[in-house]
Amino acid sequence: MSARNPPRLVNLAAMSLLRDEALAICSLEYLPMELYPPLFMAAFSLRRSETLMAMVQAWPFARLPLGGLMKKLHQETLEAVLDGLDVLLAQEVHPRKCKLRVLDLRNTGQDFWNMWSGDKSHVSSSSLMASVAKNMSRTKHSLAPLEMYVDLCLKEKAWSKCITYLFSWVEQRKGSIHLCCKKMKIVSRSKETIKKVFRIVKLDYIQEVELNFTQKLSTLAKFAPLLGKMSNVQRLLSPIHRSAVEEQDHQALLQFTFQTLRLQYLWDICMKAPSFLEGRLNRILRCLKTLLDNISMTS
Rounded to 5 degrees, what are φ and ψ at 259? Predict the structure, then answer.
């Protein structure tokens, strides 16, 4: 840390408090909400799992943008946060101070942490205050399921231990946790992997789908019912090759087209060699309830 950018007193106080982790945990009940983010960042940096677990149970904001603190999920930190959620889920009524409703594991939320760390160079004061006001307004101690946001890329290779642990944890608590994914990229051809994910993820939260693999239309038709349940998809990116013209699979055509008709909020469509849409594109576009901003079809 240079002399021109000395650490803020609040950050020094957080680091000092964490020298005695038991004291830090006992102090949470009395800390003002403004001190929670600096203390959480310090506990995250020092890998103080017990403090992180306790802070989740008393988090005074509606959203915890955990993904904004790390380039990739760290299992020890994730386990500590999920252990804290387990304690919350076991309580019939949430603690008075806790307002947590959303755990965000996506690579977002940097503005939130920048605000509380003192780096406001990219965030306007009005937007910061609006963010705080929004979090402060959601103070009802609802027992509705907690939401967990994550972006997913389904690949052929095995998932990391961290993602495997996360899915196993959520699957055991499906009634209490909603796993939400706004962006999904499907590279894997493993039907079992896709089915497992879609059993857990809330499909109506998905807004962007990228089918980044080459499949026969008959295979896509089997995937179509899942696509049809993604009722709020806005972007559909699908580099599909060699399908209807080669297969002449009329039943598969009907099934895939029928499910696509349910995607009424599309504003961006990008497909490669979509020969199966010949003579059917007008039916899909006619069902849209929003203005189509971009459509790209090559080959």
Answer: -70, -35
Q: How far apart are CA 16 and CA 39, in angstroms?
A: 10
| 261 closest CA partner among 280, 278, 279, 248 | 280
Cβ 272 vs Cβ 238: under 8 Å: yes
Residues 6+ apart with CB under 8 A from 94: 88, 100, 141, 143
- Can you read off the two tokens belonging to residue 70? 């790390």
pLDDT tens string 260-291: 778 889 899 887 766 667 777 888 788 888 88
Sign of the Cα torsion 23, 30, 129, 55 reads: positive
Other Cβ atoms closer than 10 A to 132: 16
pLDDT tens digits for range 235-251: 988 765 554 445 556 77
DSSP symbol at 68: G
Distance of alpha carbon 37 from alpha carbon 211, whole angstroms: 38
Dump the DSSP string for 145-174. Answer: PEEEE--EEE-SSPPPHHHHHHHHHHHTTT
Indicate yes or no: pTM above 0.70.
Answer: yes
> Rounded to an integer, what distance in angstroms lies between the CA atom of residue 268 and that of residue 288?
11
